[in-house]
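task queued by scheduler; priority normal; single chain, no ligands, no partner chains; default sampling; output format set to C-alpha cells
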Amino acid sequence: MKNSLFIRLSFIFVIILLLIGLAYALITTITAKKYFEETTQRLHAGVAEHMLLEVEPFVDGKVNEEALGKIMHSMMAVNPSLEVYLLDPHGKILSYVVLDKKVKLNSVSLEPVLSFIENKGNKLILGDDPRHPKGSTIFSATAVYDQSKLMGYVYMVLVSEKFESITSTLIGSYALTLGAQLLFISLIAAFIIGLSLIWLLTKNLRGIVHIFRRFEEGDMKARIPEAYAKGELSVLSRTFNRMADKILQNIEELKNVDQLRRELIANVSHDLRNPLAVIHGYIETIIIKDETLSAEDRKKYLQIILKGSERLKKLVADLFELSKLETKQIVLNKEPFLINELLLDSSRGFELLAEQKGITLKKDISSTIPPVKADIALIERVIQNLLENAIKYTPEEGHISLRVIKKKEEVEVSIENSGEGIPKQDIPYIFDRYYKTNQEKDQTEGTGLGLAISKKILEIHKASISVASSTKGPTVFCFSLPCYN
C-alpha cells in the first residue's frame, strides 16, 4: 500500500497544500502589517503640521524647550505612543520628547522626511527610528520656518517601542491563529480534493496496470484501449502496444523457426533416404558380386553411385541454403551491377546443355539497361535456378527466350520456355518446397527446391517473382529489381 502511486500523489498534494497555507499565512501577516502602517500614517499625516499651530519650536533661532515640555505633557496625555523629535536643516536631532528616553541616533536621514512632505503623507514612507539604528518606522513630519527661513523639521514617530512590542505580539498571535486555521483547512481540503482528483487522475493508469497484469499472466492479445491512451499516458500506451505486438511477432517467428527446424529434419530424413538407399544398394551389390562382376558393370554401378552422391550433395546444399533464407540468416551484400550482363554470362553456362537437347536460346537483351543494386551472387543463383528449370522442362527442339526490359523505375527479367505448360491448379503452389506437378512426379533429377530458393532470395530483396503459364502455351517466369540511381 505504501508504494501505491495514489497514496504517494496524495501525500505530495497534502505537503503542497500545507506549504501554500503557510505561505498564505505569512503573506497575510506581512500585508496586514503594511496595511496597519499605511493606515496609521495616513490618519496621522498632519499631526506634525497641526502641532505648529499650538507651539513655536524655535524662538530667536533657538530651541524652545518650554514649548517642547508643553508638547510632551499634552501629547503623552492624548497619545503616549507618539515621539517628537526636533531636527535641524541637516537632520541632526536638536531635542526630543520621548517617554522612555531611549534614543540612540544623533541624526535622522532627511530623504524620507522630504519625500513625506512632498507627498503630503498620501504614500507609505518609512523613516529612521532613533531608538533602533537599523530599524525603520512610520512617521509624520513638517518643515519649520521663521520669517521664510528654514529652521529645521518636526519629526514625529507615530508608534512607540512599547506599541510596536504589543503590535508584534498581537501580529505573531494572529499569524499563529491564522496559520493553525489554514493548516486545518488545508488538511481537510487536501484529504477531500486530493483523494478525489488523484483517484480520477489515476483511473486510466489503474486500467493500464490491469492490462499489464493480464499480459503478464499470459493473455498475449491484451492491448491498452485508445480510451486509456490520453495525455502523458498515450506514449506509455502506444509503447506497450507496440512492445506487445513485437513480442507476439517474435513468438510467432520462433514458432515458425521451430516448425522450419522440424520440417528440415523431416525433409532431410525423407529426401536423403532415396539417394542413400541407391548408393547403399549399389555398393552392397559391388561387394557381394565382387568376384563375378564385370569391369563394365562395375564402372556402370560406380557411375550410378557417383551420380547419387552428387545429387545427395546438391540436395544437402539446397536444404541448408533454403533454411538460412527462411530463418533470415543471410546478410545481403548489395552493390550496383548490370543485370543484362549477368544474364548473358549465366546463359553461356547452359548453352552446352541446350545444344545437347536441340534447344534454341533466344536473347532479347538490350545493352542500354540501367544498373540495379542487389546481392549479385544471390541474383545469379535465381537466374541459374530459372535457366536450369527452363532447360529441364523444355522439350527437344524447343526454345528458351531471355528478355530484359526497363519498366518505369524497375528492370524486369523474364525467362520463357516452350513445351507443356503448368496446369492452372498447380500455379499457386509452384514456389512451395517439394511441390511437384504431375509431369514432375516421375522425374528423379533435381531437388525440388530451386523455385522455393529463388522466391526467398527475391523476398529478402523486397522483390517478387511471378509465373504465367497454361497447359497449351509457354511458361514465363519473371522478376523485377529497382533501378540504381
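post-processing summary
- The mean pLDDT is 78.
- The radius of gyration is 53 Å.
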